[in-house]
Amino acid sequence: MKGMNIGIIGFGTVGAGTYEILKTNAALIARRVGMPLNVRRIADLDVVSDRGVVVEPGLLTADAEEVLEDPRVDVVVELVGGLDTAKEFILRAMAQRKHVVTANKALLAECGDELYRAAARHGVNLSFEASVGGGIPIIGALRKGLAANRIQTIMGILNGTSNYILTRMTLEGLPYERVVEEAVKLGFAEDPPTLDVDGTDAAHKLVILVSLAYGTPVPFGEVYRAGIDRLTPDDVRFAGEFGYRVKLLAIARELGDRVEARVHPAMIPADHILANVNEAYNAIYLEGDFLGPNLYYGLGAGREPTASAVVSDIMDLARQIRLGRTRPMPPLAHAEEPGTPVRIQPMEDLSTAYYFRFSAVDRPGVLSKISGVLGENRISISSVIQKGREVNGSVPLVMLTHEARESDVNRALSAMEGLDVLTDRTVMIRVEKGVRHGQA
Amino acid sequence: MKGMNIGIIGFGTVGAGTYEILKTNAALIARRVGMPLNVRRIADLDVVSDRGVVVEPGLLTADAEEVLEDPRVDVVVELVGGLDTAKEFILRAMAQRKHVVTANKALLAECGDELYRAAARHGVNLSFEASVGGGIPIIGALRKGLAANRIQTIMGILNGTSNYILTRMTLEGLPYERVVEEAVKLGFAEDPPTLDVDGTDAAHKLVILVSLAYGTPVPFGEVYRAGIDRLTPDDVRFAGEFGYRVKLLAIARELGDRVEARVHPAMIPADHILANVNEAYNAIYLEGDFLGPNLYYGLGAGREPTASAVVSDIMDLARQIRLGRTRPMPPLAHAEEPGTPVRIQPMEDLSTAYYFRFSAVDRPGVLSKISGVLGENRISISSVIQKGREVNGSVPLVMLTHEARESDVNRALSAMEGLDVLTDRTVMIRVEKGVRHGQA
For chain A, which domains are there? Predict the structure, then answer.
C-alpha cells in the first residue's frame, strides 16, 4: 500500500507538533497502521519562523490552496483555529472529498452542525480528538468505549489555564490578578487570557462532549458560563474550611428530555477525585448508567499532547481505509444525521447547593436579617462561618445552603441589595456535592 | 440492515450483565451503531438459576454447540472464563468465521499469541476491552487514542479486591487477615481470594496491556509477581510516615530493547494521582513520549461495568461491518502479526528504591551492623525511622534507600539472615518515586 497523504493547514504550535510526531515516530506509526503516513504539503502564512522542527524542503507554502487543491492529499489537518477562515478551509476540503482532522473546538461548538452535515453529504471523515482535553482520548472513549451507556453526568476540568490559576490561588493563597500576571509572564497564559478564564473555552469543549453523548447539536449560546476572574483567595480559603475545593467545572447532566449544561466556578468535596486535578492538567469525570463513574486525566493543551491526539485521528483514518472501509464514521458516532438540538435546561431551573459570602456590618441582628431573606425565598442554610476581623467596617459572613433553586437564589440576592447591613456585593459559588467514591 | 446476531457462551455475572445492557439500552445502541443487535442464543450449563434478568423464551441452552454451530450467529461472546474450554470455544467460533468478544484475561495472557494468530488466519475480530480494567476503556485508548506514542511507562492498579483490602488497611489500620475475612463475608472477595491477592490477576492484565503497547506477545511466566498477603498494618503506617501509600502495582517500563514488567506491592508518593485511587476502583497511569502522563479510572470489575465493555466491543464490530469494512482489525492493533516476544528484563536487574523493616534487638550497634551490610552491597540509606516500644525483645527499624539494584538487595538480605541482631524476617517493599504532576 502506498500510504496515506496528509496536508496540514496552520503550522503553529500544534501543527509543528503534529509534523514532529509524524516524523519522529514514523516507523512505529507505519507498523501500527500498516502503511506510511506522508506529509505532502504544509500551508501557513508564515513560512520562515523556526518551529523547532526541521521541515523537508518544498513542503511549506503560504497558500492554503496548494493543500486544498492537491489531488494527492487524502486528509486535510485544519489547525488554523478561529471561525470563518477555518470553516471555509474545512468545507472546501470536504467538497474535494478529502477527510478532515481538526482541533478547532470553537468552530465545532459554534458551527458543528453545519460541518457534521457536510461530512455526511460528502462521505468523508471529520475527526476531532484534539478538540477536547488535548492528549486525553475522551472523544474516542465517548464514541466507542462508553457507547453502551446512557451518559448521565459529565463533569470536566477542561481549561488548563484556569486550573493552573486556581491551583496556585488554592495552594499559595495568592490573589487572582497576581497569579494571572505571573502566568502570562511565564507563557502559561495568553495576554489577556479572556476566553480561558471567562469559561468560553471550557463551554466550547462541553458542547462537543454533550453533542457526542446525545448525538445531537447543542446550542452553544444557551450554555451558561461564568468565569473565575471574580474569585478571591478568601473564597478559596473558606471553601477549604468547609471541606471543598474551587474548580472551574464544565457540567452536563441528563434530565429526561432536557440536559443541564453549564460552566462556572464550583465547589466540590476535597475528596472527590476531580478536586485533586491540579496545575495545567485536565480531567473529565463521567457517569454512565451501566459503567458507573469514570475519569480521564492528562495534559489538556500544549504542542505535544494536542498533536498526539491529532495524529491518533490520522492513524485511525488510515487504518479504517486499510481495512477496506467504504463509508465514513459519522462525526457524532450516531448512525443518523444529527437531529433536533438537545434542549438545554434554563439556568433558573437549576437545583444545587450554594456558597454565599456576605460582606456585612459587624452589628447584632445582621445574621437574622440575611437568613430572613433567604428563608422567604425557600433557601435553607446548612452551615455558617462568621469570623475574621473587621475590614473597612465589615466582616465576612459565609454560608452553605441546602439544595435550592437558582431562581430563588437570584431573587434573594436581589432582595438583599436593599439591605443596609451589607457593605459590598455578595459572592455566590455553586456547590456540587458529587458522589463519594474511591477517595480517601 | 437486518442487524447483527450475537451468541453468548457463559451466562454468569458478566453474561447476564451483557444481556441486560443489550436489552435495556437496545434503542440507544441501535441508534449509535445503525442497526439492531440481536441476542440469538445463550449457552450455560446452568439454565435454571435466576440472574436478575428476564430472558426471552428459547434463548437459553445448556449446549455450547448450539451457539457455535448456529449459522445466524455473527459474533460469539465468550464469558466462560478459565483456560482450556474457553480456548476451545473461541478457536471453534473463529474456525466458523465468527467474530469473538471475550473478557478472559487469564486466557489472553497465557495463550494470547495462539488466539491472535487464529483471528488473523480466519479473518475475524478478537476484541477484549473487558479483559482489563472492567468498564475503563483502556484497551481502546491503547489501540487508538494513544497510538501515536511510544508507551514508556504503565503503572496500574488492576485488581479491585487487593485495592479494597489495602485501602481498608491504610485508612483503618486493620490487619490483612481481618479485612480479607470481612471482604469474603460481604461478597467483595472470593474465598480464598488467591489469584486476586497474589498478583496473578494483575499480572494477567499487565501482560495484555504490554502486548498491546508493543504489538508482540509477552511471556507471562517471566512477569515477576508478588502479592499483598504479607503486608502488615505496621508497614502501611510507616509508609505513611515517609509520605507514601502502599498499592499493589502492575508496572511496565520501556528500556530500549527490553521491558520491565512486574506486579508487587509498592510504595508511591501520597500525592501521586494513583495513591488516591481507593476501594475497589482500578486505574491505569501511562506515560507516552508525546502525550505525557495520562490516567484512566473507574470500576475494574463487577457485572455492569464489565458488561459495558463487552457491549462496547460488540457495538464497535457492528459499526465496522456497517461501514463496509472487509478486513478485521488485528487484535494487537499492529498491522503485522505478532512477532518475536518482547524481552522481559530479569528482576535482578531492576533498579529502584527500597523500604526495609528490620526486626532488631534493642541494643547499641545494631544500626551500624545493618547499615554495614547494606553498604557492602552498594545500598545507601536515605532515611531511617527507629521508634516504638520493644515487642518480644525486638524493635522495628525502618529504612528507605536510594536507588539500588535488586540483585544487591537480595544479596544484602541473605547476608543479614546470619546477623544475631535480627529477630525476624526482614520486610522489603519496593518504592516507586514516580513523577510529580498535578497533585497537591
Answer: 4-135+303-322 (3.40.50.720), 138-299 (3.30.360.10), 349-431 (3.30.70.260)
